[in-house]
Amino acid sequence: MADKNNHVHEGDDQQQITLIDDKGNEELYQVLFTFDSEDYGKSYVLLYPESASDDEEVDIQAFSFTPDENGDASSGNLYPIEDDDEWDMVEEVLNTFLADEDEDGE
Question: How far apart (Å, rounded) are the C-alpha atoms in residues 74 and 64?
């Protein structure tokens, strides 16, 4: 099987997205990484709160998105992931990414 991370692109310091909750509150998020899925024919973005510190556990948000002309998620449209199998795939990519980060950090 091919490396599942060959379409993972780590976020850079410039990629930030503002999310607005149901109450109209805005929160700035940093792009953790984006990736493409051939199985679902979509691009995905994983985000974490900009205010999170390095030593705290964070709630990572995941969305499918329509990339802008540069392939970025920062100005495209975000869509919720509603399919359980699709969520499982996203979680698997995230877990692989986090495992690779742990190896790089040691």
Answer: 12
